[in-house]
Amino acid sequence: MATDYDAPRKSDDDSESIEALKERVPDKMSGVVDLEDADNPEFALDGADLSDLDLDVVVLPPQADEFTCVSCFLVKHRSQLDHDTKLGPICKECAA
Fold first, then answer.
1. Can you give the pLDDT at residue 23?
2. What is the pTM of this model?
3. Contacts 24+ apart (CB under 8 A), 38-44
Protein backbone atom coordinates (compact mmCIF):
# COMPACT_ATOMS: atom_id res chain seq x y z
CA MET A 1 0.00 0.00 0.00
CA ALA A 2 1.39 3.39 -1.00
CA THR A 3 1.71 6.10 1.62
CA ASP A 4 1.18 9.76 0.84
CA TYR A 5 3.75 11.51 3.03
CA ASP A 6 2.49 14.95 2.00
CA ALA A 7 -1.01 14.33 3.37
CA PRO A 8 -1.76 15.88 6.78
CA ARG A 9 -1.61 13.38 9.59
CA LYS A 10 -4.74 12.84 11.64
CA SER A 11 -4.91 10.90 14.87
CA ASP A 12 -7.21 10.56 17.85
CA ASP A 13 -5.11 13.06 19.82
CA ASP A 14 -5.95 15.84 17.34
CA SER A 15 -9.40 16.18 18.87
CA GLU A 16 -8.03 17.31 22.26
CA SER A 17 -9.03 20.76 23.35
CA ILE A 18 -6.67 23.63 23.98
CA GLU A 19 -7.48 23.52 27.69
CA ALA A 20 -6.43 19.87 27.91
CA LEU A 21 -3.15 20.67 26.20
CA LYS A 22 -2.50 23.61 28.53
CA GLU A 23 -3.02 21.37 31.54
CA ARG A 24 -0.32 18.98 30.32
CA VAL A 25 2.26 21.71 29.71
CA PRO A 26 3.64 23.24 32.92
CA ASP A 27 3.37 27.00 33.25
CA LYS A 28 6.84 28.49 32.80
CA MET A 29 6.08 31.47 35.01
CA SER A 30 4.93 29.44 37.99
CA GLY A 31 7.07 27.39 40.32
CA VAL A 32 10.39 27.99 41.96
CA VAL A 33 13.71 27.71 40.21
CA ASP A 34 15.96 25.15 41.88
CA LEU A 35 19.34 26.79 42.31
CA GLU A 36 20.96 23.52 43.35
CA ASP A 37 20.07 21.72 40.14
CA ALA A 38 22.86 19.20 39.51
CA ASP A 39 21.80 18.60 35.91
CA ASN A 40 22.27 22.25 34.95
CA PRO A 41 25.38 23.58 36.69
CA GLU A 42 26.10 27.27 36.46
CA PHE A 43 29.38 28.38 34.94
CA ALA A 44 29.96 31.85 36.31
CA LEU A 45 33.64 32.46 35.51
CA ASP A 46 33.66 36.23 35.85
CA GLY A 47 36.99 36.93 37.52
CA ALA A 48 37.33 33.38 38.82
CA ASP A 49 40.80 32.21 39.76
CA LEU A 50 41.43 29.00 37.83
CA SER A 51 45.18 28.84 38.45
CA ASP A 52 44.88 25.77 40.68
CA LEU A 53 42.83 23.86 38.11
CA ASP A 54 44.64 21.01 36.34
CA LEU A 55 43.39 19.81 32.97
CA ASP A 56 44.29 16.43 31.55
CA VAL A 57 44.69 16.77 27.80
CA VAL A 58 46.18 14.16 25.51
CA VAL A 59 48.04 15.71 22.60
CA LEU A 60 48.84 13.36 19.74
CA PRO A 61 51.79 14.04 17.45
CA PRO A 62 51.08 14.59 13.75
CA GLN A 63 50.21 11.34 12.03
CA ALA A 64 51.77 10.23 8.75
CA ASP A 65 48.47 10.59 6.89
CA GLU A 66 47.69 14.12 8.15
CA PHE A 67 48.69 17.66 7.20
CA THR A 68 48.03 21.13 8.58
CA CYS A 69 46.46 23.56 6.14
CA VAL A 70 48.38 26.85 6.02
CA SER A 71 45.17 28.76 5.30
CA CYS A 72 42.74 27.52 7.98
CA PHE A 73 45.35 25.89 10.28
CA LEU A 74 43.23 22.75 10.70
CA VAL A 75 44.72 19.29 10.77
CA LYS A 76 43.23 17.33 7.87
CA HIS A 77 43.58 13.88 6.36
CA ARG A 78 45.76 13.56 3.25
CA SER A 79 42.63 12.86 1.18
CA GLN A 80 41.63 16.52 1.79
CA LEU A 81 44.87 17.87 0.29
CA ASP A 82 44.28 20.09 -2.76
CA HIS A 83 47.77 21.33 -3.54
CA ASP A 84 51.07 22.38 -2.01
CA THR A 85 52.24 25.96 -2.16
CA LYS A 86 55.53 27.62 -1.30
CA LEU A 87 54.14 28.23 2.19
CA GLY A 88 52.72 24.74 2.69
CA PRO A 89 49.74 22.50 1.94
CA ILE A 90 46.24 23.86 1.19
CA CYS A 91 43.08 21.83 1.87
CA LYS A 92 40.24 21.40 -0.65
CA GLU A 93 37.87 23.65 1.33
CA CYS A 94 40.29 26.58 1.35
CA ALA A 95 41.19 26.09 -2.31
CA ALA A 96 37.53 26.29 -3.37
1. 74
2. 0.42
3. none
